[in-house]
Specification:
The chain has about 625 residues and is mainly α. Among the domains are: about 210 residues, Butyryl-CoA Dehydrogenase, subunit A, domain 3; about 200 residues, no CATH class. The chain has a four-stranded antiparallel beta sheet with strand order 3-2-1-4, sandwiched between helices.
């Protein structure tokens, strides 16, 4: 840790702590709030009502200033293990202080509300109270001290390099949030501000505005309906992110996910409308048809690349236009005239709206709430079928490490089926489901997305085919010299990438992810382009892609509340996504060995001499 940078961090922390709101006593609609800061109460909108007495907040502020000064002196005067032990102690003290302050605030708020209700108030006067930027800064500073303590030990920096796949996206997200906060500070006024607000009050109010903006953006993670809605948005992003990441691993840039999604929707529509048979046959066939449509559309540019050397970026972009044109052809009109012959499209719904007929019941993917055993809002029973199936699958897979890989996978899938059957027979757990949760259109395609993540991980790092694919991406000439069929590998890679993108159509067409179980022209195929950002932020890893998709889902869901509460356009979410991609492309402005695998390996050798190195991905 740089000796000059660390004291600077402590100084900035102390300054921000002085002009930041620590608590919000109550929050009104539109963002107006009563703010509790170290040097007094700030009430920009002039709201009336009781305020909890926090006489200790000034003492706590000077205590944190003293902690920051001691931390700066530790960085300047101590080295090695002595510095690490001191920073661990200071970080632990910071975490305890943070927890104590949060507990005292909520305790005092409950006391004020209880006293008001005892005096005859109809409802608690302090509603929607919360922690604010000051407390968040304290938590982050304590965690910063703990990380700095770990880095002060031998091989501390090497630990960050090993986990650079996490470090780079987190730093990029932090930088994007800082840039987004600056935009909000400049463009938006303080909600409900009065005339004659002091300079101190202005600074506290502005910091509260920025804090509340991000509280709304990340608010969906605090409620079950918000998490479900985030998963609705994340589901197609997982498919398209995996599609782009799969191509990246082979050194291919697949920009054709939008067109592959559209063709997956076309194939899924035909399968859902015309395949006869029972549900247990038709539904898997319709899902496979969506994958097949995307695979065919992806294999074409793959073959052109392998056979003629045509660049996949140009080909996939052109194929996107062709796919959209096919969609317009199929859904725009019921009848077309070709060379004097009238062709009728029976799958097109009557009328002018560009959409297909409803998919048959046998090809519909059930809603996630139904898969959990609930039929609607109100009291019900949580079925143990799905939880037991997942538990049995994971247990058998991870406990059967001595088995051959193929048998291990088959045994795990068999255990999952058995767990599902047993769970369906066992009595469920009584539970209550809210109407808000039932209204969220999260369907079983989310489970398919999780299986796609497992497939990506298994194929890429547990099979020789995935090893060959990664070898082609890293050094195609060396891979070809080692006996890898480059032509077949390129076609196969684009076909699998297309299949993953095509599976995103199951969410919209077979799962009714928008509003109906049908193929509509309004299908948001542009999520194929969003998959590029998801793959980049997820560092092309299965877990990273999943987490990045959920992050974008949370931001897009929270963006709606941001627009309703503060009048901030949801385009801010687009700005944040763009900034995240920009900073990831810049490597989070971290040293180059955080970005380039070969430089990371050399850095680990220098930092950890004599230690065995893990595989650098």
């Amino acid at each position: 840790m740089n000796r000059l940078l660390a004291p600077l961090v402590s100084l900035v922390f102390a300054l921000l702590l002085a002009v930041s709101p620590w608590f919000v006593a109550k929050r009104s609609f539109g963002g107006r709030g009563v703010l509790l800061a170290p040097f007094g109460v700030v009430n920009p909108s002039g709201a009336r009502g009781p305020v909890p007495e926090l006489g200790w907040i000034g003492v706590a502020f000077w205590g944190w200033v003293a902690l920051a000064v001691v931390a700066a002196l530790v960085f300047l005067l101590l080295n090695g293990e002595r510095r690490a032990r001191a920073l661990y102690l200071l970080g632990a003290i910071g975490l305890v202080a943070f927890g104590l302050e949060a507990f005292l605030f909520y305790h005092l708020v409950d006391a004020v509300n209880a006293a008001a209700l005892a005096e005859g108030a109809r409802r608690p006067p302090l509603r929607r109270h919360s922690l604010s930027l000051g407390l968040y800064l304290q938590l982050f500073f304590a965690l910063y001290l703990l990380v700095a303590a770990r880095m002060s030990q031998p091989a501390g920096r090497g630990l960050l390099i090993r986990y650079r796949g996490v470090v780079v996206p987190l730093v990029s997200l932090l930088l994007a949030m800082v840039a987004g906060g600056v935009l909000v500070w400049i463009l938006r006024p303080i909600p409900g501000v009065r005339e004659g607000l002091s300079t101190y009050g202005y600074l506290v109010g502005k910091f509260d505005l920025v804090t509340y903006t991000f509280q709304l953006l990340f608010g969906p993670v605090l409620s079950l309906p918000g998490l479900f809605q985030s998963a609705v948005i994340a589901t197609p992003l997982i498919f398209t992110g995996l599609s782009v990441a799969f191509g990246f691993k082979a050194g291919l840039f697949n920009i054709g996910a939008p067109g592959q999604l559209v063709m997956g929707a076309v194939f899924a529509m035909f399968a859902g409308l015309y395949l006869p048979g029972p549900r247990f046959l038709v539904l898997p066939a319709a899902i496979a048809a969506a994958a097949l449509g995307g695979a065919v559309w992806g294999a074409i540019p793959g073959w052109l690349k392998a056979r003629f050397g045509a660049h996949e970026v140009i080909n996939t972009i052109m194929m996107n236009y062709v796919a959209v044109s096919v969609m317009l052809l199929l859904l725009s009109k019921n009848e077309w005239s070709f060379f004097g012959h009238v062709v009728h499209f029976p799958f097109k719904a009557p009328g002018y709206e560009p959409k297909s007929l409803l998919i048959h019941e046998t090809a519909r993917i059930p809603m996630f709430i139904q898969m959990l055993g609930f039929k609607g809002a109100g009291p019900g029973e949580l079925s143990l079928a799905l939880p037991l199936a997942l538990l049995a699958l994971l247990l058998v897979y991870y406990l059967g490490r001595r088995m051959e890989l193929g048998r291990r996978v088959i045994a795990a899938l068999g255990a999952g089926v058995l767990g599902y059957l047993v769970g369906g027979v066992l009595p469920g757990i009584p539970a209550q489901v809210s109407a808000d949760l039932v209204s969220v259109r999260l369907n079983g395609s989310f489970v398919i997305a999780l299986f796609a993540v497992a497939f990506y991980n298994f194929y890429m790092w547990r099979t020789k085919y995935g090893y060959e694919l990664r070898a082609v991406g890293l050094a195609p000439k060396a891979a070809e010299y080692a006996g890898v069929n480059i032509t077949a590998k390129l076609v196969l890679t684009m076909a699998i990438a297309g299949a993953l993108a095509g599976l995103a159509a199951t969410h919209y067409v077979l799962g009714g992810g928008i509003d109906e179980y049908r193929f509509k022209q309004s299908i948001p195929y542009t999520v194929g382009f969003d998959g590029i950002a998801v793959a980049l932020m997820g560092q092309n890893t299965p877990v990273g892609v999943t987490l990045a998709a959920f992050l974008f889902g949370v931001l897009l869901t929270g963006g709606l509340q941001l627009n309703i509460q503060l009048g901030i356009s949801r385009e801010l979410v687009t700005v944040l996504e763009s900034l995240i991609v920009l900073f990831i492309a810049a490597g989070g402005f971290l040293p180059r060995y955080f970005v380039e695998p070969l430089l990371a390996t050399e850095a680990l050798k220098r930092l950890e001499p004599g230690h065995a190195l893990e595989e650098v991905r």
